[in-house]
Structure formats: C-alpha cells, structure tokens
TrEMBL record:
<dbReference type="InterPro" id="IPR035906">
    <property type="entry name" value="MetI-like_sf"/>
</dbReference>
<keyword id="KW-0997">Cell inner membrane</keyword>
<dbReference type="GO" id="GO:0005886">
    <property type="term" value="C:plasma membrane"/>
</dbReference>
<feature type="domain" description="ABC transmembrane type-1">
    <location>
        <begin position="128"/>
        <end position="347"/>
    </location>
</feature>
<feature type="transmembrane region" description="Helical">
    <location>
        <begin position="130"/>
        <end position="149"/>
    </location>
</feature>
<keyword id="KW-0812">Transmembrane</keyword>
<dbReference type="GO" id="GO:0055085">
    <property type="term" value="P:transmembrane transport"/>
</dbReference>
<keyword id="KW-1133">Transmembrane helix</keyword>
<feature type="transmembrane region" description="Helical">
    <location>
        <begin position="324"/>
        <end position="350"/>
    </location>
</feature>
<feature type="transmembrane region" description="Helical">
    <location>
        <begin position="277"/>
        <end position="304"/>
    </location>
</feature>
<keyword id="KW-1003">Cell membrane</keyword>
<feature type="transmembrane region" description="Helical">
    <location>
        <begin position="9"/>
        <end position="30"/>
    </location>
</feature>
<protein>
    <submittedName>
        <fullName>Microcin C ABC transporter permease YejB</fullName>
    </submittedName>
</protein>
<feature type="transmembrane region" description="Helical">
    <location>
        <begin position="170"/>
        <end position="199"/>
    </location>
</feature>
<keyword id="KW-0472">Membrane</keyword>
<dbReference type="InterPro" id="IPR000515">
    <property type="entry name" value="MetI-like"/>
</dbReference>
<comment type="similarity">
    <text>Belongs to the binding-protein-dependent transport system permease family.</text>
</comment>
Length: 361
C-alpha cells in the first residue's frame, strides 16, 4: 500500500502542473484583464463589461488606431497604462509570469489580491468558515438521514413505505436548491409569513457578547436555512445508493446461508451486510464533502448573504483578480487530489480485502 500511496503522491505534481497550464493559457485569451478593470472603475464605468458594451455602440465613430490596445484606455497617457501593467505584473512575457507564479507556489507564496490588498491565503481563510459550515453540515445531515432511510427501504422493498419515500426523495431531488432557499426565506425568514430565522449572515452582531452556549445556538440558528437549502437534493442519490447496495448484498449466498443458520435479521444487516454494502457510501464521504465544499452554492450564499468561497471565486473571476483565481485553483486542486488518496485509504479501512497495489500491478 505504501508504494501505491507514493505513486499517487508523485502523480499530484504533473496533475497540478497540467491544471495550471491549461487554466493559465485559457486566461490569456479572455478579454478584460485587471488593467481594463481598473481603467473602467477609474472612468466611472463600474465594470469592464460595461466598457465593452459602450465601445460597441460608438465603434463606427472610432478609428482603427483608437481601438488598438485596451478598449477603455482612450485618452489616457501610455505611461499611465504602463504603470498599471507593471503594478499588476503584466509587463512581463506570459511564459515568464507563469514560471514565476509556479516558483512562488512551490514556496507556498500565493501573492496578494489585486483589488483587496490582502494575501490570497488570508482571504481564503477568511471565507472558509462559511463554506466549511455549508459543506460539513450538509454532508453529515445527508448521510445521517440517507443511510438509515436507505437500509429501511431495502428491508421494506416493494412495500408502500418504499414507494412513498421514493416519491418524496425524488420530489426533493427535483427542487432546485436556490428555489427552495427562496421558499424558506419567504416562509420562515420574514419574507411574507413567519420570521423565525435570521435573513443573513453566519452570526449575529452581538456574537462576541454571547456565552459559549449562546454562540453555539446563534451559529446553528443562522446556518439552519442555508444548510437545508444545500441538502434538499442530496438525499436522493445517497438513499437510493444505500438501498441498492443493501439489496445486492442481501441476495448473495453468504446472507442466505447465515439466515438458514438462524441468524437474526438485525445481525444479518449490521453484522454481515453492512460492511460490504456501505463500502461505496462510507468510503466516498471525503470526496462527497470536498465536492460540496468546493461547489458551495454561489446562489445560496448570495440569497442568504453569506460571504463564502463560492462568492469569492465568482467575484475574482469577474474582476480578473488573477492571484485569487490561480491561488484558489492551486490550493483546491491540491486538496482535491489529496482527498482522492484519502478516499482510497477509506476503502481499504472499510474493506481490508481491497489491494490497490495488486490492481495497479
């Protein structure tokens, strides 16, 4: 197993390099870099995309010379544009910038945001509590509900209970998370009916004044609706996966033999079937959590006014904040690859019969 882990760790290097090369290359062809963003803000256009729209309207009245270079830089001295490029480090050739970025990343130096004047690492750590809260609690609740429900559905396969619960989880799966979030706000957060839960934020303004128990209660009070909206569609896949895994195992010969020897149904389910049936479900927990963590819903964060990694990534992409874009891409890519290795180790922990070295050999 150690040789397999070493090979997987060594594969992280070319994989990360490939991710960075592809994304860095794509960024070079995307219009509206940080210099144009800065120019658009200085000229009161607010957003570089508005500048593109404005440029399109009066393009007929502009000469070819005026359209060269930055679209929003008309009338600005070239020296000023050069200073902006030097400020953002864009005065160097792309290849030189790329290798410089890789060298900094090897030393865990992810640079500073162009527009927020704060280190990328500090920025990620600042936004991480929101994403961890959504990802961790959504995953835990989904597992705590789906596993017992899936086992029960397998035992009651074909009964009215199985049919009704299948219908309920399919309906829940069909409801978009953002639509359910709006419904929760309208019904329970002072939209039109009740005002039981707060409308925004992860904590109250008087957080520091609360006792430890009060802080815990306040935290769960704020996170209840966002977590519910994030979890609504997660039950179906896990529940049906659990049910089908148990059904497959229950039909196998060793279960029939154990039942013939007089083993109780409880012992059959949790003493014989559980480990084999739950292999995929339990071992996949790290990957599921990281998936929810990475893709922390931008729309849900926006609806509940939560400043998490979803909004950070979106705002960085819109503003062309390259240090934040590439820094988060590198960090999350590295975490994702490591979690893939952890998932494999979880498979071995759940079922020691699995040997990845022999499979690779």
């Amino acid at each position: 197993m150690s040789a397999y882990i070493l090979r997987r760790l060594l594969l992280i290097i070319p994989t990360l390099l490939g991710i960075m090369v592809i994304n860095f290359t794509l960024v070079q062809f995307v219009p509206g870099g940080p210099v144009e963003q800065m120019i658009a803000q200085m000229q009161g256009q607010g957003d570089v995309f508005e500048g593109f729209a404005g440029a399109g309207e009066d393009a007929g009245a502009s000469s070819a010379e005026e359209l060269e270079g930055y679209a929003g830089a008309r009338g600005l001295p070239p020296e000023f544009i050069e200073e902006l490029e030097a400020q953002f480090g864009l005065d160097e050739p792309p290849l030189e910038r790329f290798f410089g970025m890789l060298w900094d990343y090897m030393r865990l130096d992810f640079g500073e945001s162009y527009f927020r004047k704060i280190g990328v690492t500090e920025l990620i750590l600042e936004k991480m509590p929101v994403s961890i809260s959504l990802g961790l609690w959504s995953t835990l609740i989904a597992y705590l509900v789906s596993i017992p429900l899936g086992i029960r559905k397998a035992v009651k396969d074909g009964t009215p209970f199985d049919h009704w619960t299948s219908g309920a989880i399919i309906v829940a799966y069909a409801i978009p998370g953002f639509l359910f979030a709006i419904l929760l706000l309208v019904l329970l957060a002072g939209g039109s009916y009740l005002q039981i839960f707060p409308l925004r934020g992860l904590t109250s303004e008087n957080w520091e004044e609360l006792s430890l128990l009060g802080k815990v209660a306040d935290y769960f009070w704020h996170i209840a609706l966002p977590v519910a909206a994030s979890t609504i569609s997660a039950f179906a896949t896990l529940t049906l996966l659990t049910k089908n895994s148990f059904l497959d195992e229950i039909k196998k010969q060793y279960v029939i033999t154990a039942r013939a020897k007089g083993a109780s149904e409880r012992r059959l389910l949790y003493g014989h079937v559980f480990r084999n049936a739950m292999l995929i479900v339990i071992a996949g927990f790290p990957a599921v959590f990281i998936g929810v963590f990475f893709t922390g819903s931008l729309i849900i964060e926006t609806i509940f006014s939560l400043d998490g990694l979803g909004r950070l990534g979106f705002e960085a992409a819109v503003a062309r904040d390259y240090p934040v874009i590439f820094g988060t891409l590198f960090i999350f890519g590295l975490i994702g690859l490591i979690v893939g290795i952890i998932s494999d180790l979880m498979y071995v922990a759940v079922d020691p019969r699995i040997d990845f070295e022999k499979r690779m050999g």
